[in-house]
Amino acid sequence: MFQIYDWSKISHMKRTTLAFFAFLFCLAPVFAQAPQPWAKETLAKSPRHQEWVAIKYGDRTVNAFIVYPETKTKAPAVLVIHEIFGLTDWVETVADKLAANGYIAIAPDLLSGLGPNGKGSAEFTAQEANRAISGLTPDGITADLNAVADYVKKLPGMNGKLAVAGFCWGGSQSFRFATNRKDLSAAFVFYGGAPADITAITAPVYGFYAASDAARIGVTIPGTVDAMKAAGKKYDPITYDNSQHGFMRLGEDPSNTNPANVTAHDQSWARMLAILKGM
Length: 279
Hints:
This protein is of the alpha/beta class and 279 residues long. The chain contains 9 helices and 8 strands. The protein has helices at residues 12-27, 37-45, 89-100, 126-134, 138-153, 169-177, 221-230, 247-250, 259-277; strands at 50-57, 60-67, 75-81, 104-108, 158-167, 184-190, 205-210, 235-240. The chain has an 8-stranded mixed sheet with strand order 1-2-4-3-5-6-7-8, with helices on both faces. It starts with 11 loop residues before the first helix and ends with a helix.
């Protein structure tokens, strides 16, 4: 369990500072991203159609990994926003698992064209990706995400319903994207911070938080609850006991030694899929 602070007694400036440091925590290389052969194996065994698409707008091209469900009917779509490490094999498995459950899943590489030789995430080390992502601008990120969302919504097999899900840095971006995109049916925020201004949000926001983030992300949750309630927005956060930051990835990693990460992973997947089904 973690301490719940009385957010009403914290000044607006201090609230903003706490939220800012929570965001920086998601930018910090807390976990050195190692190779993920287990994720590669999962992708290789998938029977679903996976492909890369180049989404162009203006002078920019965003490369995105997309996986299609095996269904004869039109399906909702989920836009998956990667961690600070860039678009990794594990993030691609998230897209594949969403497709396995009936959703078109698209995961853009927000480092597209920014790597060596004009390539993307695959050409960066974890630390290099961290630095590159830290240099992205909010407007640039929003433009990329909007282009990807527009692309997937135009697919013939898409039924018009779109959700967004992000992890750590991507979780913060998922929350922020909900302030910029009016046609979202849901936003899933995995251990990410809230934006300073939530008044433009129209989609329900669902939070998935790690107990180990209590002093950083956790301390901002009560204030976000109050702000969203005051603005008439739906926000449903859950913190998973004894779990660590990054539990969605750690819960699948064979080297994980904390059973709580597996529990948090499994419960979070079940929760997200139940919400998606009810969109």
